[in-house]
């Protein structure tokens, strides 16, 4: 299992260690996933600027906290490919992401987030995962902004990560634009996990992603929406709900 943390592409306090609360529940002896997951990897990726962070504002001189798309997804692809070469697991992995980590997880399999030659080469030898779990995920950037027009922080963090809307193609980077039937031929499972109590990412994101997957259906792939409990960050902070979403996906892959 491969985990990608959230944090609006910029929060330095949400890191690869955010998977830790989930692990005791995931590997409890009573869960079916306990003997089916051979290992867990959780990575960090370079972040976008966050000059107004309350305790740890970014510095313009810090290269690890001053990037824009597609640096986040390039880092993610580089890490997965390195692990595939080192451990030889091929397609036998589940990709799990929370919030913008779910965005990155779906970008891995969407096949159309960039049209540059560099990025086609970067993703060329990647073996796609058999399944994806998106928890409290962001799947349509413009829709997220438009749903929260009264809250400038959404425009701020999206521009910080992707540039101004007129200067970059927000749509191309949004997983709702993916060509999954064409580009993710080995995909078997998608779990869109979302809590009605999420105060940061609205339900419309899940519905938009479900609509896209319906249009991009493949006979061998099963797509489900899973209802979670808790607010946006409680899903990973408490761990039990994220573990439940992962276990649902593992059981579906086993079946």
List the helices and strands and how they pair.
Blueprint: E1 2-4, H1 23-26, E2 41-43, H2 71-87, E3 94-98, H3 100-110, H4 117-122, E4 131-135, H5 141-147, H6 152-162, H7 170-173, H8 180-183, E5 189-195, H9 203-215, E6 222-228, H10 234-237, H11 240-254
Parallel strand pairs: 1-2, 1-3, 3-4, 4-5, 5-6
Key structural traits:
12% strand, alpha/beta, 255 residues, six-stranded parallel β-sheet, globular
Q: Which class of secondary structure composition applies to the elements?
A: alpha/beta
Oligomer: single chain
How many strands, which pairing sense, and closed or not: the largest β-sheet?
6 strands, parallel
Mean pLDDT: 93
3D shape: globular
Distance between the termini: 17 Å
Strand content: 5-15%
Number of helices: 11
Order of strands, widest sheet: 2-1-3-4-5-6
Your description of this structure?
The mean pLDDT is 93. Helix content is 38%, strand content 12%. Strands 2-1-3-4-5-6 form a 6-stranded parallel beta sheet, with helices on both faces. The protein is built from 11 helices and 6 strands. It is α/β, with parallel strands linked by helices and 255 residues long. α9 (203-215) links the parallel β5 and β6 (222-228). The chain starts with a strand and ends with a helix.
Q: Could you provide a short overview of the structure?
A:
With about 260 residues, the chain is of the alpha/beta class. The chain has eleven helices and six strands. About 40% of the residues lie in helices and about 10% in strands.
């Amino acid at each position: 299992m491969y985990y990608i943390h959230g944090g609006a592409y910029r929060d330095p306090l949400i890191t690869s260690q955010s998977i830790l609360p989930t692990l005791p529940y995931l590997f409890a002896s009573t869960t079916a996933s306990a003997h089916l997951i051979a290992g867990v990897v959780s990575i960090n990726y370079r972040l976008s600027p966050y000059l107004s962070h309350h305790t740890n504002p970014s510095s313009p001189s810090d290269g690890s906290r001053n990037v824009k798309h597609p640096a986040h997804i390039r880092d993610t692809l580089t890490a997965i490919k390195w692990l595939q070469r080192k451990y030889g697991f091929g397609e036998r992995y589940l990709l799990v992401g929370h919030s913008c980590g779910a965005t990155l997880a779906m970008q891995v399999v969407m096949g159309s987030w960039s049209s540059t030659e560099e990025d086609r080469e970067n993703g060329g030898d990647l073996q796609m995962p058999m399944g994806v779990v998106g928890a409290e995920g962001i799947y349509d950037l413009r829709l997220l902004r438009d749903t929260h027009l009264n809250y400038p922080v959404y425009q701020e963090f999206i521009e910080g990560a992707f540039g101004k809307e007129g200067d970059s193609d927000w749509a191309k980077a949004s997983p709702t634009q993916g060509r999954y039937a064409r580009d993710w031929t080995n995909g078997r499972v998608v779990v869109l996990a979302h809590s009605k109590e999420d105060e940061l990412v609205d339900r419309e994101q899940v519905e938009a992603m479900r609509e896209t997957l319906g249009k991009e259906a493949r006979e061998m792939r099963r797509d489900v929406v899973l209802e979670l409990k808790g607010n946006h960050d409680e899903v990973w902070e408490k761990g039990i709900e994220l573990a439940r979403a992962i276990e649902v996906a593992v059981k579906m892959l086993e079946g």
